[in-house]
Amino acid sequence: MANTASAAKEARVVEEVVVSQGVTEHTETVQDTVRRTDVEVEQLGKGATAAGRPRAFEDYGTDFRQHYTTHFGSTGDAWDTYEPA
Question: Is the dihedral of CA 21, 25, 29, 32 positive or negative?
Answer without folding.
Answer: positive
